[in-house]
Amino acid sequence: MKRNILILLGTLALLPVTAFAHVRYIATDNEQALLSYHDYAAFFSPLSEPKYLAMIIATLVVVVVAYLILDHNRFFHHWAEHMAHVGESYRPFIPWITRLSLGIILIGGATDGFLISPVLDMPPSLYLVQLVIGFFLMAGFLVEFSAVVAFCLFIFALAHDPYLIGSFDILALIISLFILDSRRPGVDDIIGIPDILHIKRWRRYLPAVLRIGIGVGMTYLAIVEKILTPHLAALVAEHTALVDVIPVSAMMWAFSAGIIELVVGIMLIVGWKTRLASVAALVILSMSFFYFGEDVTSHVTLFGTLSAVFILGVGPWGIDKPHPMHKY
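Structure (tokenized):
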């Protein structure tokens, strides 16, 4: 419990306000072309400035003090245990969470003119396909057929733009439709359409699929959008007036965002402090969403996947002790 509290406080205390979400959603094509070059020295340059090192030390002091206070706070311990217990009780809602998340982004993408991700324009021939599949998933109608089509759409999009690696949370949600019996609640369950493709023996791997999927996406974005191309991330910080929120350099914002997103992504991949990592990621995402005012459609699968990860915990292939699987 002590280390859990410390990790959570450390993650939240280091948050400047945002991890920039997807930088390519914000930067223009010209900005991406001009500033998408590697510059490791620029990314790590904040570490050479004494005032930023002092800020880091001060932050660590605040984190330690807050940790000591919460560690001896009986109310906080009861509250944390209550949240974990309630989260476990939400397992039956996982199929609905996955279907609704996917349905919303597919419908929203079709109406806004993008295929799976806002960085990829929608081919006219696929508009109706994505729209219909989105509605089918929302209604729980022909779920398994819709999952196959959604999987094909994602692979098609990934083949056209590797940036879709940053949206592996969507792929993880699609795969979950083959692992879960996702008909309930839905039309399939009501009218009695049989479950054919549901692979029950894979069910125990669902938590790992979801956390690794979103962890890979976050790690990829941290490396590609912040660490490898820090000038682009710094430009976004300037354009969105983040440097006015807290008076540090734009590169310091890029450095903070990249490191935080990388650490949280790796924690999810290896399954270490999984629920705390999902909470930290939700906080980062929420603050990014409200600050930048981005369209909710492009981020709804992140909210859905992180919510499912918090509910399910680590599963197999993780450092944390697995939680017992319940019926969905």
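The chain has two domains: 2-91+226-312, 93-207. Residues 50-71 form the longest helix (22 residues).
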